[in-house]
Specification:
The complex is a heterodimer of chains A (about 350) and B (about 280).
Chain A (H helix, E strand, L loop, with lengths): L2 H27 L6 H19 L5 H31 L16 H8 L1 H33 L5 H9 L6 H19 L10 H29 L3 H9 L4 H12 L1 H16 L3 H6 L5 E4 L2 E4 L4 H11 L3 H32 L1
Antiparallel strand pairs in A: 1-2
Chain B lengths: L1 H5 L1 H23 L4 H6 L9 H11 L6 H32 L3 H13 L4 H19 L7 H25 L3 H9 L4 H12 L1 H17 L2 H6 L9 H11 L4 H21 L1 H13 L1
Helix pairs in contact in B: 2-14, 4-14, 5-6, 5-8, 5-11, 6-8, 8-11, 9-10, 11-15, 13-14
Classes of the chains: A mainly alpha (about 350), B mainly alpha (about 280).
Chain lengths: ~350, ~280
């Protein structure tokens, strides 16, 4: 096609796009309910992009760069960046999910740390996270040793151990609710369901989380263990090291990095636990603390959700979420620092 | 005795595998029983497997669950989000790697640091932002496919760009220069030369995001609602359980139906799925 025709056409497309976007925005601002205004806006934006794309210029590469970055940065800004900034802002107001009337300063934060149910949720999440890190990693490492030994049918076991990780926590939570309420009570005849006792219900969530997550962590350990050079293992065998010494003195120090990765993955994952928590116990049963009934197994993520969605306290839920974010950010920074330090040492 | 000792690892492995898989076994056998049978004997094999068809029919035609609709919605949301995510994040990663400016550095750092942000801290303002956008421009962003796919692009983007970024760096720049000299356009170079080379790492991105989007509960339950016209499978199961409390025959059948698609996928692409998820974690 002729250069000048191409240029004219792309300028026309660009101008038409701008025009239709202006009309659409005009309709938006004047509060028109005309349903065409949405389509008009999108069509306009597309025309602008097409016009830019076809415009013949020496700076074509720059235009392509912009066009390539646009979709992801736009969605990212609208779904993550803007809500994130708003979120921090709302935690200092009396926001009700739609609008806010007053700034309350740090009031939300003060109220939050004074409320027993939040402090309890904080502590119980912490306890859960610590125990879960240990149980997931111990089980996963043991399974990884089994799956890297000379056992027959390794691939079958790996797949079996990995499978629970692929099913969503919501569905698994309901399935395990059935197992705890109907199956375990029948196997141990006449026993109460674990989910009715505050401590045992926590143990139940630990069982399900470990069951669900250990297979995944196992695979990371398997990758690490397979990376230990064969000649080192052979040399230690020649020197007469038994399998226990090989494991503790050679294999484990050599995959120290894998341990760091796995522990942090489990840490973040346990701390964020939501789906299983919601479907299995939804915070139940209650525990009486200081004369108040408190949901015994409500972890932080569920506490945030219930505060905002069930109790309709949006500003409070948002404040809790900001603290939740700060903790996770600190954890991630710690992980980055540790891995950097190790890289320098190596 | 010697025989037993020789096969000890196999025996342990088998026992562990059976233990790990037993909840799935319970789901299968109990979705073939009546409610009364489940209460008296939840562990035994069902007396009549035909009951499974009856249960399934009940669940599939149920208004709250509407299996085929939910299945279809889950597939549409997952597949479209993944396709767009792969194309857009590859484009972004490529531009960010090949243009060394302080802007590209800044954008990349922004994506990386956003990986730390938990969904909980953005979910409430996200709902209000989307609600305002919907009423302002007159396009429904909350309970529609385009809205939720848009959100998945935003949330999945940062990790995808991060993983792809590392890979694009390893592709020699000479390849692109050769294409330039032959007169290829930048977009042609990207789609014909770079994009196909990214395939191995795109599989990783696809699997990581695919498993996450397929199983995600919080985002669709908040955006689409528990009883909205569009439901994903996890939301449908949850909404079903909410209205049929303790009807274990139906609940377990629903759980079974919700599990089937991903279990079938896993049987066919076991190796790729496990490898993809592990690689994603290590990076």
């Amino acid at each position: 096609m002729n250069q000048s025709i191409k240029r004219t056409l792309s300028v026309v497309a660009f101008a038409a796009g701008i025009l239709s976007m202006i009309i659409a925005l005009y309709l938006d601002i004047t509060g028109s309910e005309n349903s065409i205004r949405g389509q008009l806006l999108i069509a306009g934006a597309l025309l602008v992009l097409l016009g830019l794309y076809f415009y013949p210029t020496k700076h074509h590469r720059k235009i392509i760069n912009m066009l390539f970055l646009f979709p992801l940065i736009f969605t990212f800004a609208v779904t993550v960046v803007i809500p994130f900034i708003y979120g921090i802002f709302y935690s200092f107001t009396d926001w009700n999910g739609i609008k806010f009337d007053n700034f309350v300063g740090l009031q939300n934060y003060i109220t939050m740390f004074k409320s027993t149910d939040y402090v309890y949720s904080f502590v119980i999440t912490f306890i859960f996270t610590v125990i879960n890190i240990v149980s997931v990693n111990v089980v996963a490492f043991a399974l990884a040793l089994l799956c890297t030994s000379r056992v027959k049918g390794k691939n079958l076991y790996r797949a079996a151990f990995f499978l629970p990780n692929l099913i969503g926590g919501i569905v698994l939570g309901y399935v395990w609710q059935f197992v705890f309420n109907k199956v375990f009570t029948l196997i141990i005849d006449g026993s109460q369901s674990m989910l009715t006792d505050p401590n045992l219900a926590l143990a139940a969530i630990l069982i399900v989380s470990t069951w669900q997550y250990a297979g995944y962590i196992m695979m990371i350990y398997v990758t690490g263990l397979q990376g230990v050079p064969k000649d080192i293992l052979e040399a230690s065998g020649v020197d007469g090291a038994n399998s226990w010494i090989t494991l503790t003195k050679i294999k484990m120090p050599m995959i120290a990095n894998t341990f760091t990765v796995c522990i942090f993955l489990t840490l973040v994952n346990s701390f964020k636990q939501f789906d299983v928590n919601l479907a299995l116990t939804n915070g139940a049963p209650t525990r009486v603390l200081g004369g108040k009934a408190i949901a015994a197994t409500e972890f932080l993520a569920l506490n945030i959700y219930n505060t905002a969605i069930a109790k309709n306290q949006y500003a409070m839920g948002q404040t809790k979420a900001v603290v939740f974010f700060i903790i996770l950010a600190v954890v991630s920074l710690t992980q980055v620092t540790i891995s950097k330090k190790r890289e320098v040492e190596l | 005795m010697k025989q037993i000792k020789k096969f000890l690892p196999e025996i342990i492995g088998l026992l562990l595998a059976i233990t790990v898989l037993s909840p799935f076994f319970l789901v299968v056998v109990n979705s073939a029983k009546t409610s009364a049978d489940i209460v008296t004997s939840p562990i035994s094999l069902p007396s009549d497997w035909g009951q499974m068809l009856i249960n399934m029919k009940n669940v599939i035609t149920n208004q709250n669950f509407s299996y085929w609709n939910s299945f279809f919605s889950s597939v549409v949301i997952t597949v479209v989000s993944l396709l767009l995510l792969i194309v857009f994040s590859s484009m972004t990663a490529w531009v960010l790697v090949r243009n060394k400016t302080k802007w590209s550095n800044f954008i990349f750092m922004l994506f990386v640091s956003a990986m730390v942000i938990p969904f909980q801290v953005v979910m409430l303002p996200l709902l209000s932002t989307f609600r305002e956008i919907s009423s302002f421009i007159g396009i429904d962003m909350l309970s529609s496919y385009k809205g939720i796919i848009f959100a998945y692009l935003g949330f999945g983007g940062s990790m995808s760009v991060f993983i792809l970024h590392g890979f694009v760096k390893g592709i020699p720049y000479e390849l692109e220069e050769a294409a330039w000299i032959d007169g290829a356009s930048p977009e042609g170079t990207f789609f014909r030369i770079i994009f196909p080379l990214l395939k191995p790492v795109q599989v990783t991105v696809l699997i990581l995001n695919g498993i996450w989007i397929w199983n995600d509960y919080l985002l669709p339950s908040l955006m689409l609602g528990l009883n909205g016209k569009i439901k994903t499978l996890p939301v449908a199961v949850s909404s079903f359980v909410g209205s049929y409390v303790k009807q274990w025959d139906l609940i377990l059948t629903a759980a079974f139906l919700a599990m089937i698609p991903i279990v079938i996928l896993f049987l066919f692409a076991q190796k790729q799925i496990m490898q993809g998820m592990v690689e994603g974690a290590i990076k």
